[in-house]
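Sanity check

After download, print the first record. It should look like this:
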Amino acid sequence: MNVSTHTRSALNTPPIWEKCPEPALLQHPLVHGTLTEASIKLGGIEESDPPEEREERRQTARRLWNEARALNRQLDRLQHIVFVEGPSEMGTAAQAATGALVPFFGAVIDWFHAVDNGSETPQHHAESDTAHSEAYGKLLQFLYAASDTTLPDIQDR
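Expected structure tokens:
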């Protein structure tokens, strides 16, 4: 069954095994990268910074976090297509990669609240780093699984 025929925006999308699902493969790194940028911006906020500089970094980080959330919502439809139409290894890796984003989003929003309330500690940065590492590892596993199932076999030399 080609699920993409049931989604108006994905009408006429070929089954995943016939063509590399480029949007799904690129969407995960976009979500992860944008959320990572938000975390980096938060990490650049120092207590000793002038208030206007702190506010600018905080607003930039918030914009990036909101952008990552919007990209993540788009990822839902693409993940459904990958999971239903794709090989099981790829679907399982895609689910794990998407699931690993949840704690990363949580760590970054907790950090935001701490910055907003003036209660930020080094632990917020450490928790964000840990969640980032976990999400990045799952992202790589997904990309490897996608590569293994969508690229033609290349003989070892």
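If your output differs, re-run the checksum step. Summary of this record's structure: The helical segments are 22-43, 51-85, 88-117, 122-150.
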